[in-house]
């Protein structure tokens, strides 16, 4: 199956470069290009891509707001945010808006296409260079004083799994920690996402920090 991609960036050369990299792969295809966030939202509605490569800083509507609009109207597209700005506030804002991944624009071509494939599958994806600071930013965020009703729907084991997802553990690592099979862990992760109405694993990380399931690390 060919993965359909929309590229949103206000720089023509950047869009052209991404298109060349993506279209060179048999399983990937650029189906649309947008020069601003508003156009990105429109193309996502019209073309129903699997993944949207979204620049953060664009005219008319920025990438973060465009991501929020795409998520709010229920698109199945995963948004992969790319930016030259290695800034915590942008990372956090993009994730809170519903982005499924975050990468810097200096990523290698092979890493970019791998990121698109991972994002389309709903796997967690954050650039290693920014992951630790993203978590630090979440940890400094005051959690809600009481979990929302949806969190109460989780079983004790599912709450444990969500906490470990928030600690950036993989399914294999969670399985080892809890002495479960990976298949069982995968089922728990699926249940957590369904019960909390989360799009993917990245949003589960956000939820874990927002609800105080992960304790702040001391400086």
Automatic annotation (TrEMBL):
Residues with PTM 4-aspartylphosphate: 55
Residues of the HTH luxR-type domain: 147-212
Keyword Repeat on entry: no
Annotated GO MF terms: DNA binding
Keyword presence, Transcription regulation: yes
Xref: Gene3D superfamilies: 3.40.50.2300
CDD domains: LuxR_C_like, REC_NarL-like
Annotated ranges, domain Response regulatory: 4-120
InterPro entries linked: CheY-like_superfamily (IPR011006), NreC/VraR/RcsB-like_REC (IPR058245), Sig_transdc_resp-reg_C-effctor (IPR016032), Sig_transdc_resp-reg_receiver (IPR001789), Tscrpt_reg_LuxR_C (IPR000792), WalR-like (IPR039420)
SMART domains per record: HTH_LUXR (SM00421), REC (SM00448)
Pfam hit, one: Response_reg
Keyword terms of this UniProt record: DNA-binding, Phosphoprotein, Plasmid, Transcription, Transcription regulation
Family matches, as SUPFAM superfamilies: C-terminal effector domain of the bipartite response regulators, CheY-like
The protein's name: DNA-binding response regulator
């Amino acid at each position: 199956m060919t993965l359909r991609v929309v590229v949103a960036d206000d720089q023509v050369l950047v869009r052209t470069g991404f298109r060349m990299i993506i279209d060179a792969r048999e399983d990937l295809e650029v189906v649309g290009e947008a020069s601003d966030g508003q156009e990105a939202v429109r193309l996502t509605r019209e073309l129903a891509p699997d993944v949207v490569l979204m620049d953060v800083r664009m005219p008319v509507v920025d990438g973060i707001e465009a991501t929020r609009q795409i998520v709010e109207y229920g698109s199945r597209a995963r948004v992969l945010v790319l930016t030259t700005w290695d800034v915590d506030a942008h990372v956090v804002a993009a994730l809170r808006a519903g982005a499924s991944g975050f990468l810097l624009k200096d990523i290698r071509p092979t890493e970019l296409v791998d990121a698109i494939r991972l994002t389309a599958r709903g796997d967690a994806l954050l650039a290693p260079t920014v992951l630790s600071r993203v978590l630090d930013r979440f940890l400094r965020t005051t959690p809600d004083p009481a979990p929302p009703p949806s969190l109460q729907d989780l079983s004790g084991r599912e709450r444990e799994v969500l906490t470990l997802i928030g600690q950036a553990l993989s399914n294999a690592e969670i399985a080892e920690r809890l002495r479960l099979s990976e298949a069982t862990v995968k089922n728990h992760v699926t249940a957590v996402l369904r019960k909390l109405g989360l799009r993917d694993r990245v949003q589960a990380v956000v939820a874990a920090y927002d609800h105080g399931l992960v304790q702040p690390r001391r400086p």
